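Here is an idea for our session: we take a single protein and study its fold together. Start from the sequence, derive the backbone structure tokens from it, and show both lines together. Once you have written the record down, we can walk along the chain together:
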Amino acid sequence: MISRREFLSLAAAFSATAVIPAGAFAASKANIVVIGGGVGGATFAKYLRRKAPNVNVTIIEQNPIYVRPYGSSEVLTGHVDMSDLDVNYDVLRNKYGVNVVIDRAIGLDADRQIIKTASGTDYAYDRLVVSPGIELNYEKVEGYTKELAETKAPSGWIPGSQTALLRDQIKNMRQGGTMLIVAPPNPYRCPPGPYERGALIAEWMQKHNPTGKVIITDPKNKFTAGNNFLLGWNRLYGYNIPMEFMDGMPEDVVEHSTPGMIDWIAGKDGGTPLSFDAANMSIETEGGNIKADVINIVPPMKAGKIAQQFGLTNEQGWCPVNRVTFESQKIANVHVLGDASIADAMPKSGFAANTQAKVAAYAIAHLLAGEAPEQSPAFENTCYALAGSDYGFFVSAVYELRDGKIAKKEAPSLQDLNASEAQRRLSAVYQQAWMKSFTEDCFA
């Protein structure tokens, strides 16, 4: 597992942004409006109130309950229920004094610094924070639409009705059937992750559909923690690791004589998806046609719709920001957090959004007090993943500002491929504990 020295190093870097003392900047009476009550928005509101308790903070969120995406693939296997993903805003309201308004932002008057909502209410702001998450580009996969995602080939990347539909399709799939996951191109929001999702479904199939198969077709040739996943698939599901990934693999890797339960088709091997045929339930890839009983398409992504409507996005669909304050490079006094922002080397993850929100809260508190924000903030991202219920691993990285961009401070810390079975089991326990503690840090 991670060494004591590595742990202390990561903890020190994280503390630079995570520990925000209460009571500072208490004189400010500014109005801060936050659009989006997900990880980024909720974390920002909580930590700004801790930093500057007299600042008025209002979250405008259209859903009264936040449904967390991290851990949502476990719904597909029945490990958790949909209701287990629900998170409320009670503590933000009652303990931190955040005004949580269930409404929908529909307009921005940047000159007057006013947000307009569907209910007809206007909210004046001194600083606006937009944390809209992602939007799925269904149309980027030829033949795929949002309607088909809701009825036939769910994405389930934004948890909700599509997640429940995909769960039911997997449960009712014929014996010996095929589940096809179409992985997205970079950049994409994770978790959930398509590779963990495929592994957990394969594990479920071992018990309930032992002759079934999971195929992951992919436009990419590698992915984060890929060697850990490939090794886990080899040990658990009979996957044969390609030669180009064998460097550093432990001696217990097995060359299986028969095809395993999981197959990953990389972009160089024809894995790039071209089109979806809903009538025949098949995906045309550069390598040929793949027919399946259940198809889970994860399409390309872009910043959430409200960021596009407000004019905060570039031609690629993401939001350029100042990396110190996360202020938009498009509109003054508007800040963009999390998945929607361009954060260079940082992935689009919940942990990244949480860290960015703390940096932004600290910076905005300084700006409201007429002071310059810290010019060398530290960022962190940690991801725990599962190849099976008792087979976990992690990747962790610390980031710094370099020439105005967010860059990795050093090579990411990955779980050793030679980790023992006990260490892999412990990482799986950590994954479950992390989700609980992470949710509390954001919302409680």
Notes: The first strand starts at residue 31 and ends at 35. The two ends are 29 Å apart (CA to CA). The first helix runs from residue 4 to 18. The CA atoms of residues 270 and 286 lie 5 Å apart.
